[in-house]
Amino acid sequence: MKIRTRSTGEGASRRPSSRPRIRTAFWYLDPAWPRRHGGRHVTGLEKAALTTRQQVADLIEQRTPEIVEAYEASLRAAGNAIAQSPASLDQALATARQIVADVVTSLRVGQVEVDQTCKLLAWDVGATRAADGVHPRESVQASSAFFHAALSTIFSHLPPGSRQVDTLTLITLALERGVALRIRESVAAYTGLLVDKIHEAQLDERRRIARELHDRIGHGMSVTHRQLELYTLYLDKQPDRASVKLATAQQAIQESMHHLRAVTSDLHTRQPLKSLEKALLNDLESLGPDGVAARLRVNGDEAWAPPEVLDEVFLILREGVRNSLRHARATVLLVNVEITPNELRATVEDDGCGLPQERPADAGVGLSSMRERAELLGGRLLVNSRPDNGTRVDLSVPLKGRLLDEPARRRSC
């Protein structure tokens, strides 16, 4: 077999090169190389680098559980909030496995590669941490802990011959890209959930303002209107009684103005009730249910219920009483309150015309306001009504068992 040689000078000759054979063998080692390098064959140095990266990729893949374990230990040692939530911790460890897999892939293809499906988990991570109230600084701390745990574990197991600068650089860049991409996506999901919470808080505040205007100011306007009607009715034949109704109307107007100022100045509620029974009695008297047999019964110790609960219960019952007197055309009205250490139960019952089976959409906010206040107390409001057979409103509110005040509790010990 005749071998051709190329002269570099007169009389000079070289041994035949074996590189084509090496390049051909390397071509089959990694068919993707020609595509990544413009169709050219690779050199022996490139073959050695590829072999080293493949070995490092295999090593990192084998050490994935150790990396994840070191990451979890770092989170727990730092007291990170993510480690305190099982759901958040599971997501963090799953993210760590994904990033390590991206590093392995990057080493095998020779460039940084990040699996784009990681965005799905990153979105879940952001939503979960926002729902759990995990502060963003905890996420930043967790990212730093993972970066340190991954690099420390990988570098501690790399053999000396595999620590080329290119390989180490690719590992570091793949880690950085994987962490940064997931932080960006999770922050977007975190922010989105917080925006939703802000919107819901705004809706809650609007509903609260509507309740305050309806139950406090609206009630005062209703009382004023009723008292002025009675004033007109009694003016000619019973002027003394008419004067009383006019004074009551003026007092109701003043109270409404006070409540309006409270609503407009930071929505401060009025002082909690000192006595639910007295407040209900005063309310029945101010509404002036002429021709209506009204009865009020309160059983149990009001001290078993917190003042703020009694205040909300009063507003609920007052709305029920007002509906019976103003809209039901009732002749009998019964209000009953039962207070025990663990629960408050109340009913407002009348013999009026009842509620229509189909109520228009603009029928008012009275019943919805009563239900919302009951739900805010952790309680329940039920309304039973049939046309021409009256209406019964049942309210139940759980209490925390305030059996004894602190001095009495100490004396009993």
UniProtKB/TrEMBL annotation:
Keyword Ribonucleoprotein set for record: no
InterPro entries in UniProt: HATPase_C_sf (IPR036890), HATPase_dom (IPR003594), His_kinase_dom (IPR005467), Sensor_HK_TwoCompSys (IPR050482), Sig_transdc_His_kin-like_C (IPR004358), Sig_transdc_His_kin_sub3_dim/P (IPR011712)
Domain of life of the native organism: Bacteria
MF term (GO), any: 4 iron, 4 sulfur cluster binding
Residues annotated as domain Histidine kinase: 316-401
Keywords: 4Fe-4S, Cell membrane, Cytoplasm, Iron, Iron-sulfur, Kinase, Membrane, Metal-binding, Transferase, Transmembrane, Transmembrane helix, Two-component regulatory system
Enzyme class: transferase
Gene Ontology CC annotation, any one: cytoplasm
Keyword 4Fe-4S: yes
PROSITE patterns: HIS_KIN (PS50109)
UniProt topology in membrane: Multi-pass membrane protein
First-listed, main subcellular location of the protein, grouped into a coarse class: membrane
The enzyme's E.C. designation: 2.7.13.3
Subcellular location: Cell membrane; Cytoplasm
Catalysed reaction, written as an equation: ATP + protein L-histidine = ADP + protein N-phospho-L-histidine
Pfam families the record matches: HATPase_c (PF02518), HisKA_3 (PF07730)
Cofactor(s) for this UniProt protein: [4Fe-4S] cluster
Function field: Member of the two-component regulatory system NreB/NreC involved in the control of dissimilatory nitrate/nitrite reduction in response to oxygen. NreB functions as a direct oxygen sensor histidine kinase which is autophosphorylated, in the absence of oxygen, probably at the conserved histidine residue, and transfers its phosphate group probably to a conserved aspartate residue of NreC. NreB/NreC activates the expression of the nitrate (narGHJI) and nitrite (nir) reductase operons, as well as the putative nitrate transporter gene narT.
Name under which the protein is recorded: Oxygen sensor histidine kinase NreB
Highest classification ranks of the organism: Bacteria, Bacillati, Actinomycetota, Actinomycetes, Kitasatosporales
